[in-house]
Amino acid sequence: MFKIQSALSSRLIALSAAAALTFAIAACGDSDPPKGDTTSDAVKRDGFSDTTSDGTPSETSVDLPKADTTKDAPPPDTAPDAGVEAGAEAGQEASVDATADTGPDTTADGPTPDTTNDGPQPDQPLFMISGTVTQFGGPNSGTDVYIRLYDSNDPTRILDHIAERRINVISGQNVGTEAFTFTVPNGTYYLRAFRDDGGRIGAPDGQPTLITDAQSRSLAVTVNGANSTGNSLSLVAAGNTTDFYSNFNVKTVNIGDARPPIGDVNNIRIAGPGRCGGFIMSIGVERNGTTSALTPPRVRMPNGTNVTLLDDGGCNDTVLDNSNSSYDTNANDNTFSYGVPTPQASSVGNYALFYHQSTDDFIHIEIDNIASIVELSRQRVLTSPTGAARNTTLSPTLTWQSVPNATYYDVEISSTDGQYDNFNDATRLRTTTSYTPSPNLLDDKCYQVTIRATDADPNTGDVDAESFAVAGYFCTDVDGAQSITLSGSLNNNTAVGGPIQIYVNANEFFRASVRLATNATTWTASVLAGAAGDGSIEAFIDTAGSMTFATPENRRLGLTLTGTDFSSTATLNLALNPGPTLNQPGPWATVTSIRPTLSWNDYNNVANRPTGAWSYLLTVGDANNSQLARIVLPSTTQSFDMSNLPARTAWFDLVSLATCESNGGTFSVAATGQPVCTGAGDTPSQTVLVAGTLYDWQVSVIECDFSQFQPPATGNLLPCLRNVISTGVVYGTSELRGVMTP
Fold it and tell me: Distance between CA 652 and CA 674 in Å, rounded?
């Protein structure tokens, strides 16, 4: 016998006589096809299974396969002795996969030290596993039958076969009786076979596919000092055609600002661990049928680790736990997913879905290759119609700015009151940047337009990148009887350039959006008239390119007005000023006490601060936008310590003022600085937070002179603060920052 090097001392796979001298590895679902190998004979690797953390055999980290397209290779050698003798006489050494045996095992249970020995090993007796494969049913249009050998008797093992035979057959005819042979040392093995009729996108892909490929059940084989002959594999159709996973897709998704999952628990808004949002690599499948026949869907990542897709609702409003990175939005809805935050170049490669269906003892392997990481912009500017002017036609042509690297746009349009949608319009999927909705729009309605961008046809193609846009708004009013026009000057005092985004809400359902150039000095919006004092407006410099005020960079460069009268045409001059910069706690931080200290940088150092007297307004709220504390502080203060409250003469409780007067009381301030509400009840600001609760906080600059606060008299401060309450007008505001109590 000839000497053979192996990565394991006692287990070796030798190649039959028809094999080429050296083979590249081709493990099922976990390796590339043999590079430079044009035969259809066996291929091998030197790794054997270990056990993952969940107790199942691991699949050793190697590249994933693509179908071998060679059709004219010689048939497998069925003479057991000749295979060993030919190898010995030629002095052949079995090839060892350098990738598999020179680095650590990177399966799902974490790296394992490589303890193999690549030095010369004692001669081992080699024996043949031989048999036949025959087809008795199932699709027969494929031209290739694959027989795979596994070094285990576990039929749920799917990836990492150790050798493979490929047999060329005639399309449209059942497989007759075809022979196969493998050369192995003593051990326990099992065999599987499948006819490659179709794959991930219809064409054969060199992988076993449920339910389009005829397959054999697994067959256990034991080799103990003698050849194993007469092994018979029968290809049949799937008897269970209802249990499988579908719509496997791996893609980059840009879904907006990163944030932890937030929801209601016992009527309290809280945040869960992890984050749900941002730019992620999204992996997902949908389940058809019942759970009992299917193992959980698992995916081998490009780095060799195996992950399990989950249907746990980790990002919904009740579970609030994305620590397993499921990014799943609804629990138990038969949609399974997994996400990788902020994918990098290392996320490029093959992703292999694999699972077992127990009714037929069939397996499925499906590979999605991501060739590059693409982050599609969320910015989708609606250029026509817009909220800048009244829309006088019920059949407008919508146009928008193109998105680099996007080839398809899925347009969703609906009325803001929910009375119109065109989701069944087959023409709304566009390859151009225009769309005319069908049927016609309704008159005297405001519409929301959201455009999803993808790099391929989402209905028939393999989407590798998508992003979701922030909605744009416009209103229809053919005769103009219901519309109002809002306009005024626009001053950018921030010294920061960028397009200016404005959202106008005349009421809950009447909305318009306007996008202005960087150097715009005036603004105009047309919207349906709302009730008096029921309107609001957001205006900001879109430095983040997100078109949303919620982005921290944008919130610092914008303004919000509430309680505005948009019942008739009005002039409203807007000024965008820089906001304060928050210091501690950091974004989405968990504080150590329910009486935290909130701090910010000194706004006196800002060049474009107000020319007259001004004060800070500290606002603490919750995720329901309830303002639990609104505390006015002098311009010389840069922090508020809830565990050591300053003297009441050093801060003013705006919540107490607002609730007292809204309840019909008369507000005043005692000499001690304590608020006094006569004739009604008031609610003071919350200065002790609730444990385990998510809060948000921000600091604004208001043009009210705190020095005029002299208890028991309030001087001119009180009228100024009443104006802040009624209009929401502030000079500048910081980002809105989340904080979690312990």
Answer: 9
Helix, strand, coil % over all residues of the chain, rounded to 5: 5, 35, 55
Antiparallel, parallel or unpaired: β 398-400 and 408-415: unpaired
Tokens 């005024």 appear where?
Answer: 488
Token pair belonging to 324: 């397993």
pLDDT at 592: 93
CB 379 within 8 A of CB 551: no
Q: How far is CA 453 from CA 193, 409, 433, 436, 450, in A?
A: 41, 5, 10, 17, 10
Quick count: other Cβ atoms within 10 Å of Cβ 645? 14
**pTM of the predicted model as reported, rounded to 2 decimal places:** 0.71
Token digits of residue 344: 């990098």
Instruction: Write phi, then psi, for 717 (nearest 5 degrees).
Output: -70, -40
Question: 319: left (phi > 0), else alpha (psi -120 to 50), else beta?
Answer: alpha
- As a whole number of angstroms, the distance between CA 121 and CA 143 comes to 40
Higher pLDDT, 500 or 261: 500
The span from the CA of 97 to the CA of 207, in Å, is 21
Pairwise CA distance, residues 17 & 32, whole Å: 23
Helices 717-727 and 654-662: crossing angle in degrees, nearest 10, is 70
**Count of CB atoms situated within 10 Å of the CB of 122:** 9
pLDDT mean over 387-399? 96
Read off the DSSP letter of residue 544. T
* Vertex 555 angle, CA 550 and 558, to 5°: 125
Alpha carbon dihedral 348, 350, 351, 356, in 10-degree steps, equals: -170
- Find the radius of gyration of the CA atoms of the chain: 34
* Strand-strand pairing, 737-740 and 589-590: parallel
Q: CA-CA distance, 319 to 314, in Å (whole number)?
A: 6
User: Helix/strand/coil (H, E, C) string of 463-515?
Assistant: CCEEEECCCEEEEECCCCCCEEEEEEEEEECCCCCCCEEEEEECCCCCEEEEE
Q: β-strand 615-622 against 589-590: which pairing, if any?
A: unpaired
Q: How far is CA 693 from the centre of its chain?
A: 25
Contact status, residue 13 vs residue 184, Cβ threshold 8 Å = yes
Amino acid present at 679:
G
Distance CA 216, CA 167 (A): 15
Neighbours of 521 (CB within 10 A): 10
**Contact 651/666 with Cβ under 8 angstroms?**
no
How confident is residue 11, by pLDDT bands cut at 50, 70 and 90?
A: very low
Which of 261, 262, 306 is CA-nearest to residue 283?
Answer: 306
Residue 215: which of 192, 191, 242 has the closest Cα? 192
Q: Which pLDDT does position 452 carry in this prediction? A: 93
In contact, 247 and 716? CB cutoff 8 Å: no
CA distances from 545 to 384, 443, 497, 536, 549 (A): 19, 32, 12, 22, 10
Structure tokens, 35? 């590079």
User: What pLDDT, in 10s, does the model give residues 462-474?
Assistant: 999 999 888 899 9
Tens-digit pLDDT profile for residues 12-30? 233 232 332 222 223 333 3
pLDDT of 601 strictly over 70? yes
* Closest of 316, 307, 382, 392 to residue 351, by C-alpha: 307
For residue 620, the surrounding DSSP H or E stretch is: strand 615-622
Contact, 676 vs 705, CB < 8 A? Answer: no
Alpha-carbon distance of 189 to 370, in angstroms, equals 33
CA distance 701 to 720: 13
Q: 501, 156, 143, 126: which is closest to 298 by C-alpha?
A: 156
Q: Could you say which DSSP state residue 658 is in?
A: H
